[in-house]
Design a protein that fits this description.
The structure is a homodimer.
Chain A (H helix, E strand, L loop, with lengths): L8 H20 L4 E3 L6 H5 L32 H11 L6 E3 L4 H14 L15 E6 L3 H9 L3 E8 L2 E2 L1 H7 L5 E6 L13 H8 L9 E5 L17 H7 L6 E6 L11 E5 L1 H14 L5 H10 L3 H30 L5 E3 L8 E5 L4 H10 L2 E3 L16 E4 L6 H26 L1
Parallel strand pairs in A: 1-12, 3-4, 3-6, 6-7, 7-8
Antiparallel strand pairs in A: 2-9, 4-5, 8-9, 10-11, 11-13
């Protein structure tokens, strides 16, 4: 197999005709497969069927400190949950708040607080008409959506194989209107890249001009290794302390992709100062979070090791899915020189870059053949991928046979789009 | 027993000495009882031990429409929950959103939205430095706390036995800076008063000058009758529609005092316009609420009649508690003319008015004797009860024997405070 560019017109026609034929066969089958969102598969959720109640009565619905979890109280969450998340995040549990079922909700509320109250004694963000947020691209559409909702101008910073382009970030934070950035430091969404030590250290040592600059450090995939040896991520809080910068970071995580998606427990960890400012709000926002669900989780997971042991079962389910997609991508597109993709060691996504200007067309072809992808462009603010080349693949939910068909269709779409590009170029 | 005012000094001294002696005996006992918050009692929570999982597996964790509730999806909550709350609130279920565990959180977020976004195309509330909110007093401290957190000036409107003083409300809404009010229309907190039909109709027909005026209609006790015949509350949405005013109201409720306090399901209902503005936020704030908990509730309660049937069990637990407090209040303070209280037919509280200027002192005496009451003054904004006379009693959590002791101590404190008042007056 040689690069498609080197094909003679005749070869290209043949190649295209073959691809078109196969593609049409799939279209004829009326397939409907969804690779749009990072949803866990049912088989993964089955693992927790016994988490729910078995032990509730014997422990009298009480947390370790004797609190009846069926009743009000304990704003910061039950101690055992705070300790568990403290271990997961590598933070003192006293700086952790165990909350409800959604970490996205926590991030939204944190930014909302910046909007109407402001941080570190600075004016509310809403008062700054030029407020800006750094968007590492490609990135998580829901992060961008929050910043857009709150009227931030989003500034793209490209992702590298070591994390965000830090030269650019260090330049941007000289602007007092730049109020923060989103980071998914481990198994980034969608690239599956884990920030290098150097990147974490450069983030930790940043001295933004804006005293109310905050990094929304979304550690959604912190224990989500797909292989035995997962990536290692340097502890941002330990590093930030060395530079007196711990107030620049608030970290978020949840068990949505550990136990139940949307019905797990979320948590945030923050420096003493940020913790105080957050809890001044929480005191008025809620009486207490769902401690029953926290109790379920704390009973199921005594320590972070229990979580890691459990996550191996996830890996066993996810690995063949990732490998199916990656195998077919390399078999079908290997040396054609029309697509690039990463091979993540964890997380929930594979990021596929196709020839510039053809991602949307690939998406259309896939849709026509019954394969739903994350909206092409969604990995960029305002859903505008300047090069129209990035596609996020979410292999977690479909079965392996479904993934085989879906990935074949994706590859065919990439081939057809590439042929079109080349022909129009010639 | 005659009015204390009519006692001769000698009689008063005798009376006071007797009260002081009994009071000292209680102090000596080192009692510790809490009547501060409207927390359900364990016996009430026990009712739901079987709600949790029994049926989960047989229904495969699926909602009626086949959605796997262990996974993401369905932003507005599962249909069966929306329908249940629709029945409870008397609203079309399509205007209902079933959410997480806290309705207070929903109210906070709604007001936050007014702060940073604004409603009905008006400027964000944060931009109005003179923003005001109406506080019906005595009222719920957490409502006032939210408005204060967001920098609203709170304007007191006294509660009458028919609801808020509507003459005053109708006057205040002529001010464009008055952006809303909190209402607990059924079994109000703390008075236990249900708004009369006239009050509901006058609320429904209000034409506030501020287009973004919103009533936070907190229907926390809508099915919380303590007696067979509970109070009847006119449906605010039906009435408001008659005047084209349905956008003035957003109603909130939860099962916190139906199933688990802080671990139930909350809901809000809003007009099409408000629903749209709220869901524009929700779409970005969260992926989906905890459908597992919604499923538990929907399975346990098929219809509003199931809820009402269940609430009779609550009434059986709460009635003797209310009656114990009310009996002792009338036995001890009956004709002394030094205290007034209401006799609610539902809800969670009894509101006690003592002689002007002595509520704080009564609170201190109770505390010294080991009885914790809701912070005296907390039923008013800024914790300032202008007449220092209102005390909120929460009889739901202590046992009947505990309530007997607590109420005796409260009565003794009221007597001692009254004697002090009278002596200093003489």
């Amino acid at each position: 197999m040689k690069a498609l560019m080197e094909y003679t017109t005749e070869q290209l026609n043949e190649f295209e005709a073959a691809a078109q034929k196969k593609y049409d066969e799939f279209v004829a089958q009326g397939i409907s497969l969804n690779m749009a969102r990072g949803k866990p598969a049912s088989e993964q959720l089955d693992i927790y069927d016994n988490m729910l109640n078995e032990h509730f009565k014997e422990i009298g619905f009480k947390s370790e400190d004797g609190t009846d979890c069926r009743n009000y109280g304990i704003l910061y969450g039950i101690e055992e949950c705070r300790k568990l998340f403290g271990e997961i995040l590598g933070v003192d549990w006293k700086n952790v708040i165990a909350c409800g079922s959604s970490s996205l909700n926590l991030m939204f509320d944190f930014i909302a607080q910046g909007m109407y109250k402001g941080f570190a004694g600075c004016e509310p963000w809403v008062c700054n008409k030029n407020r800006k947020f750094i968007a590492v691209v490609p990135g998580y559409d829901r992060h961008f959506g929050i910043a857009q909702y709150f009227g931030f101008e989003l500034i793209n910073v490209p992702m590298t194989d070591k994390g965000p382009d830090m030269d650019l970030v260090e330049e941007l934070i000289k602007n007092p209107d730049v109020k923060g950035m989103f980071c998914v430091p481990k198994y980034s969404n969608p690239d599956g890249i884990t920030y290098s030590d150097e990147t974490v250290i450069r983030l930790a040592s940043m001295k933004p001009v804006a005293k109310d600059f905050r990094v929304i450090y979304d550690n959604a995939y912190i224990v989500h290794d797909v292989y035995e040896e997962g990536d290692e991520l340097l502890n941002i809080f330990d590093e930030a302390k060395k530079y007196g910068n711990e107030d620049n970071f608030v970290t978020f995580t949840s068990t949505s992709k550990i136990t139940y998606a949307g019905a797990g427990v979320s948590a945030m960890a923050a420096s003493d100062r940020n913790f105080k400012e957050i809890s001044d709000r929480l005191t008025l926002q809620i009486i207490s979070y769902d401690k029953m669900n926290q109790l379920r989780h704390a009973y199921f997971y005594k320590t972070v090791d229990d979580v890691k042991e459990q996550m191996k079962k996830h890996a066993a389910i996810l690995r063949p899915k990732f490998e199916t997609v990656l195998r077919i991508l390399s078999e079908e597109l290997g040396e054609l020189g029309v697509a690039k993709w990463n091979e993540p060691r964890g997380g929930y996504f594979i990021s596929l870059d196709v020839t510039t200007g053809s991602a949307k067309y690939v998406g259309e072809l896939c849709k026509k053949a019954g394969v739903t992808l994350t909206g092409v462009g969604a990995t960029y603010p305002y859903e505008i991928d300047p090069e129209d080349k990035n596609i996020r693949l979410a292999p977690s939910c479909p079965t392996v046979p479904e993934l085989e068909i879906a990935t074949e269709i994706i590859c065919l779409a990439v081939k057809l789009a590439a042929c079109k590009e080349i022909r129009e170029g010639k």
